[in-house]
Amino acid sequence: MAMVEIRDVRKWYEGGFEALKGVTLDIEEGEILALLGPNGAGKTTLISAICGITRPSAGEIRVGGHDVVSDYRRARALVGLVPQEINLEPFTKVADSVRFSRGLFGKPHDPAAIERILRKLSLWDKRDSKTMELSGGMKRRVLIAKALAHDPRVLFLDEPTAGVDVELRRDMWRIVEELKADGVTIILTTHYIEEAEAIADRVGVINKGEILLVEEKAGLMARMGQKELRIDLVTPVETLPEALAAHELELERDGRVLVYRYETGSGRSGIGRLMGEIAAAGLQVSDVHTAQDSLEDIFVNLVAGQDHSDMEGRAA
User: Fold this and answer.
1) How far is Cα 11 from Cα 4, in angstroms, rounded to an integer?
2) Where along the sequence do coiled-coil regions lie (predicted)?
3) 288: CATH
4) Which tens digit of pLDDT belongs to each residue from 99-152?
5) Which of 125-129, 172-176, 309-313 has the largest mean confidence?
């Protein structure tokens, strides 16, 4: 059984705006799912529905087998949420803030548990500091500590590294990996594509309230990514020889570079035949190197494809 089960979930508001349009998704125990989407795609609405902050207009959501509407308390007890906004009581000490969050879920007083969480997040030496005295990055760590205070089995991170520097972002990735090792299921929304590329097991793309794709990261990049072969020429050319027209090559850098793109999952790249035909055409090659589409390229293409389809639908 999946840890989080989402079935045909819809959310609409007065006036007719539909933020979620029939979302169906299973999230497995102990996995890291990165949910990508542009602003207004429905990421935060979906998380809010799972966490019980907003009620779905239709559909069903279960966490650990508990319905988030009819069995709200048990479902919510399994969930930790780190919101986008930093909203902490400024005069409260770090340890007291985390202790209070634990108490909200009816958990017994446990100093050892609080110490363990604070040490994991490099906050132990700040335990007696007021939150107003912390840097932005440290405040984000406090938010995570509060979300973990009641030992949840599912952790939602809504843009957790927004506004933090690269070094701290990578430190946060390490923390997420450690939580996964403890068996925690993690759902991450992010604008930083490299974040998903670095730590996610699966990637989901949401746009305009619809899930466009959910797939294992490696498989997605292999299936949808393109490779680019760049061939440096000894002598530049003004135009491509007619014999090479079938390969749909592009000329760059004033005719000094030939660019050849091919699908990574196509089985046959055609590179061998291409190189032979380049030599037969009298072109001398000085260097060859390849690059592969990033997850960001795939994401942009998916969203752009949906936008183009929507425009065609409206035009029809």
Assistant:
1) 18
2) none
3) 3.30.70.1560
4) 999 999 999 999 999 999 999 888 999 999 999 999 888 898 899 999 999 999
5) 125-129
161/280 Cα distance (integer angstroms)? 53
Same structural domain, 259 and 197: no
Domain count, the chain: 2
Nearest to 55 by CA among 3, 10, 21: 10
153 shares its domain with 198:
yes
C-alpha 197/C-alpha 296 separation (Å) is: 9
* 236 three-class SS: coil
d(CA 191, CA 169): 13
The CA distances from residue 23 to 7, 128, 193, in Å, are 6, 43, 22
Enclosing domain of residue 288: 226-292
pLDDT at 73: 93
How far apart, in whole angstroms, are the C-alpha atoms of residue 110 and residue 39?
Answer: 40
CB atoms within 10 A of CB 224: 19
In terms of domains, do 93 and 174 share one?
yes
Q: Of 88, 35, 33, nearest to 210 (Cα)? A: 35
Q: What span, in angstroms and rounded, lies between the C-alpha atoms of 278 and 124?
A: 63
- Judged against a pLDDT cut of 80, whether residue 290 lies above it is answered with no
Residue 84 identity: Q
Can you tell me which residue has the tokens 């912390």?
134
pLDDT of residue 272: 83
pLDDT for the residue numbered 78:
96
The pTM of this model reads 0.73
Name the amino acid, one letter, at 133: E
Of 200, 222, 244, the residue that ends a domain is 222
Q: For residue 210, with 0-12 CB atoms within 10 Å meaning exposed, 13-18 middle and 19 or more buried, which class applies?
A: middle
- Residue 85 is predicted with a pLDDT of 85
Residues facing residue 18 across a β-bridge = 12
